[in-house]
Every structure is written in C-alpha cells, then in structure tokens.
Specification:
The chain has about 350 residues and is α/β, with parallel strands linked by helices. The chain folds into 2 domains: about 200 residues, Quinone Oxidoreductase, Chain A, domain 1 (Alpha-Beta Complex); about 130 residues, NAD(P)-binding Rossmann-like Domain (Rossmann fold). The protein contains 11 helices and 17 strands. Strands 3, 4, 5, 8, 9, 16 and 17 form a 7-stranded mixed β-sheet that branches. Helix 4 crosses helix 5. It is globular. About 50% of the residues are buried.
Length: about 350
C-alpha cells in the first residue's frame, strides 16, 4: 500500500510500505476517512532534515476512522471483529498505569507512549494496524467523516468543555474558528451556552454563526477584550476556550474573564504573561486540555447522535490521498473548514 509522509518544508510524499499484519492483541482497520488536523502543520512546516531517511519516518494522519478487516490472536470477539465500524483513539500506552487504565494513554510515560503519526504509522493510508484497545465504536448513524473528526478535532473540543464543566447557562468565548473551534462552538451551543466566536477570518466567522454562535468578533477589526466586555455588560466572560494557538488570543482570553472565570487552553504554541495579582482579584482558573480520553471520545459521539448534530457540515474539503499536496496547501492557508481524505 501507499502512505503519506511529511518531509518538512511544506513537502509531502506518497511512498510504498508493506501492508500491515496484526500481532497479538492487534487489529487492522481499513481506513475510510482520515481527517486533516491543524497540528499536522507542525511536521508539514518543520525544517526538512535530509539525514532522516524515509524508512525512519512515519505515515501521517491521527484522525482515523474505518472498518475492522483483520483481527490478530488474543482479541475477543466482543472487543473487535471484522466488519466493526470504528474510530481509533490515536494514542497507546503501557496499558497498566493509572492513566492508561482510565482511558488517558496520552498521559502515559513518554518512553512507553505511542502517538500515531508521530512515532508509529498513522491513518493517511488504506490500512492501519493498532491495538484493539484503541478502538472506539462508531454509531451507525455517524458518517466515517464525522468519526474522523471526533477522533481528534471535535473530540478535543469536547474534552475542553468537559474540563470547564459548563452548567448550560454560561457565556463562552471560543477563540479560533478552525475545526476545533467550530466544534467547540457547536457543542457548547448544544449544551446550552451562549457562544461568542472570535477569529481573524470572516468566512470562518460566518461558519461559526451557522454552527450556533450568538455573536462573532473579528479580531482584526476591534480590541477583543473591549468587545467582550461590551457584549457582557462589562462583566467579562465566564468561560474561554482558546483553540488558535495564538499568544495574543490566549492573553486576550485570560484578560477578558469575569470574576470566577475559567480559561481552557487547547491551541498549541502560545505563550502568555500572567500577572498573579490580576488573577487573584478575579479568582480566575487557567487550565489546559489535551485531546480527550477514550471514554470522552465515545461520550462526544453519543452526544452528537443524541442531539442530531450535523457534524458533516464541518467539512469543506474532501480529498483523495493522491491530492495530498494540494490538500495541505489549502490547510496551510488556514482559511477553510475541515479537510479529510476519503478512501
């Protein structure tokens, strides 16, 4: 089969690799949809290292969704069998520590942690071999595209909301309206919140409106902190989800919170300066959220089904794997919705 590799310097290549064969406790998933994630841009944009041969690189893609086609020894039928529609939780750990046993393998010790597409082959290929413990059932009513989104981007938004624990009547500012931010806007609205969406792109803000945002702010046009205070009668924001990875957005989120406000950082790469006294005066809670647990991935999917949310609208670009160069140029521009490779 052929898989997609990131080479850095905005280069990708399709290269032949052996078809996977499952060992004990493993399965092979025939990939039907492999989502494109904003975090793909880190290896995509990274400097090319000519000293790393292709044999030491890994197939990209960490939003896998498909059908089980082969089951290795030691996998009970109630865990996985050929024909099962599944998402893949894209981490695997030691399986015995407290984090792994509660569905958080991404918190396992780095020496024993696998992150698919980073240190093991990912989903940008027709087939993917994974431990059966990484599988999360995909509801019959959900498309494979939706399952791919839940496997990282949408699931990450759900994980952030679970960290914030909204009661259903808060005002939540969502910074960044890429796929994770749009998912947070949709999910928070469905959970009863009033959402204010912030971005730099009017097209993404229009999408946010269609996903339920009560108000939108283009950070190019106004002072975001002042705009948020105006929209909350001067009180500030009760909850913030920062998905953009922008230092300016993260700082504005912290500065805009109300007394007892909560800020959840999701975007990768930002740096903020915190004045302790200012946070003490408002009793602000600042936290992070790292994707979601296996349990939360399932809960997110069930919530989407129970509320009949049209997650497929998140996708603006559907690609074949042989269109990868164009696909990642579009993602690199960061002005569209979500992209996915279909097989």
């Amino acid at each position: 089969m052929k898989g997609l590799f990131f080479l850095g310097d905005r280069q990708v290549v399709l290269a032949s690799v052996d078809d996977p064969t499952p060992a004990h406790g493993e399965v092979v998933v025939e990939i039907k949809a492999s989502g494109m994630c904003g975090s793909d841009l880190h290896p995509y944009r990274a400097p090319h290292d000519s000293e790393i041969p292709l044999e030491r690189r890994f197939i990209g893609g960490h939003e896998p969704c498909g059908v089980v086609v082969e089951v290795g020894p030691g996998v009970p039928k109630h865990v996985a069998k050929p024909g099962d529609r599944v998402m893949v939780h894209h981490y695997h750990g030691c399986t015995t520590c407290a984090h792994c046993r509660t569905g958080w393998p991404q918190l396992c010790r780095p020496a024993t942690r696998t992150t698919y597409s980073a240190n093991a082959h990912g989903a940008h290929a027709p087939y993917m071999k994974v431990p059966a413990s990484t599988l999360v059932c995909l509801h019959e009513s959900l498309s494979f595209e939706a399952g791919a989104a839940i496997a990282c981007g949408t699931g990450t938004a759900w994980g952030a909301l679970e960290r914030l624990k909204p009661g259903g009547n808060e005002t939540i500012a969502v910074f960044g309206q890429g796929p994770v931010g749009l998912s947070a806007t949709m999910l928070a609205t469905a959970r009863g919140a009033r959402v204010i969406a912030i971005d730099l792109d009017d097209d993404r803000l229009a999408l946010a409106k269609s996903f339920g945002a009560a108000q939108t702010i283009n950070a190019n046009d106004v002072d975001v902190c002042e705009a948020l205070r105006d929209l909350t009668s001067g009180h500030g924001i009760e909850m913030v989800v920062e998905t953009s990875g922008s230092s300016q957005a993260a700082q504005a989120g912290i500065d805009s919170t109300a007394v007892w406000g909560k800020v959840c950082m999701v975007g990768i790469g930002s740096k903020v300066s915190i004045e302790t006294r200012a946070l003490l005066d408002r009793q602000v809670t600042v936290m992070t959220s790292y994707t979601m647990s296996t349990v939360q991935q399932y809960q997110c999917a069930e919530f989407i089904v129970s509320r009949n949310l049209d997650l497929d609208r998140l996708f603006t670009d559907r690609w074949r794997l042989d269109q990868a160069e164009q696909a990642y140029r579009v993602l690199d521009a960061q002005s569209s919705g979500k992209g996915v490779f279909l097989f």
